[in-house]
Each structure stands twice: as structure tokens, then as C-alpha cells.
Amino acid sequence: MTTVQPTRQDLTNKVSLAGKVTVNPVFGLVSPVKGQVRYLDVKAPQSTPTKPTRVASVWVSGKAHRIDVPAGAVFSGRLADDRSTVTAGMPVVSAKMIGYGLVADLDGAQAYQIADGLATVQAQIKNGPGPFPCDVLGTIAALPAGTIPDPPAPPPAAPPSGAPSAPPAPVAPPERNQTEPSEATGLRLVCTAPADVRLINGASATLEVVTARAANVLVLPVESVAGAQGKGKVDVVNPQGVRETRDVVLGLSDGKVVEIKSGLTGTETIAVPGPDIPAAKPAEGDPNAPMGVK
Q1: Cα Rg for the chain, rounded, in angstroms?
Q2: Which one of 103, 234, 277, 279 has the fewest beta carbons within 10 angstroms of its own beta carbon?
Q3: Residues 6+ apart with CB under 8 A from 279
Q4: CB distance 260 to 274 below 8 Å
Q5: Beta-sheet pairing, 91-97 with 26-30
Q6: Which pLDDT tens digit goes with each residue over 192-203?
Q7: pLDDT tens-digit profile of 56-95?
Q8: pTM attached to this predicted model
């Protein structure tokens, strides 16, 4: 029988994503609170903004919560109707980063894995620079197509008091906004590299997201543990060599070891491989039951 004993170590949970270098990537900004969103009329900038641009506010009980497009990016679309009620975390504005960014497409499972752990992202360009820190822009939520309304037409000038009436002068149509509205996007992470990192559009990259850290925790090899999603079982071997299956609470895992949050003291001897968990019996009358099972 192969056995191991629990040990203590620092543990980091990571998710690796495939991405690529992209010019002018679009990202989304979310509402900070639940309330009514009110948009501002944003003019197309003459150059890349060096300061944040206020584009909307979400109002709650008479208080405005600002939404700003960060410096280095431009407003790219409204994602909700003006004065509509939005929820906290809902994408309400799209923006376009001017310059290079790194973009990784996500599936739903990856999005839930990294949603609360985007503070630390490291990037590596294939056959290129890295690893280097990558600053996350906006949200990972999928974005609807953005809309950019035309500015309102100016009101006609009133004639001077006492002047004879004259036919109204033609009013010039308002100048159209030159900003192109953003297209819809899927789930994706967008981040930017330090200024001194050389990027080439279209180059492949790997983004590593650290979702959680734990220091000096009790761990066991994954082969010695059965279960997932916080609940597990291990076989504790007593001095006489007899196995006893014990319930444990699981924490982080790096794919090699798994954190044991409770259920063991750290002095036990654990059998490898872990216990077999019997499959659930099929329901009576199940047409997919194996032969001989009713």
C-alpha cells in the first residue's frame, strides 16, 4: 500500500487562457450600483484622451455614481437605454483602448472561475516577451452592440423684438458623431501590457490569471483525495494498516495538491490512491440501467 502524510505549503490557484495581441480592443464598463443610468453627450475627441472621460452616471436616491472611460481609451457606445434601470455589475458603456491590448476569449466555465480573481494577470507572448504583468480593462462579461446617438439639433434663433416677421431660416442639421459604435462581443478578458513591452498585432499569447492564494495550508496529493467542489473523502490508514474513509473539506488546488481545510489534523497517514466513490444506482425502471438492474 502506498501512503502519504499531509504537508503544509503556500498554494496558488491559476487559470491559463489562450489569447492574442489586438489593436484597439473594445472593453465594457459596468454599473457600480443598481439605479437609473443617465448618459452624457460625448463628443469625439480630437486626440487620444490623457485624462478619464465622464460618459454616464447611475443615480440612486439623488446621488450620482460616475462612470468614466479611462485615459488612453475613447467612448465607443451605450449598452442600455438612457434613463433605464440597471443592476450593479451590468455592462452599460463600451470603450475602445487606443493601441495594443491582449485579448483572451472565454467560455462560461472560465468566466465563473476568474470573475472574482482578476487582480493578478501575467502574460507571455509566444516566442516573444514575457512574462509581464497585464492590467485588466473593464469587465469580462459579453457586450451587446453599442449605440451612439446623434447630438440634438440646436434650437432656432428667435427674431429680434419688434422686427418684421420673416420666414424662418433653414436650420443646419446637427453634425453627426464620427465615433463608430462598437460591435457585440463574446465573453473575453482584455488587458494591457507595460509601455516598454514590444507587441505585434496578431501574436499569440498566454494569460495566466491568479484567482486565489493561500499561505501555509494543509495539502495532500490530488491522487489521494476523492471528490470535488469543496467536499471530499480520504482513506486514513491506522497503525494496524486498516483503512478508514473520512470526510474532508477541500479548498484550493494547483492540479498537483489540494488544500484540506478541515477533517484532518496533519498527523494522519493517508492511502494512495484515494477511496472509490460508488456510482449512484439508477432509478427503478430506468431504461438506461445496465442489464439485470430494474
Answers
A1: 29
A2: 279
A3: none
A4: no
A5: antiparallel
A6: 999 999 999 999
A7: 999 999 999 999 999 999 999 999 999 999 999 999 999 9
A8: 0.72
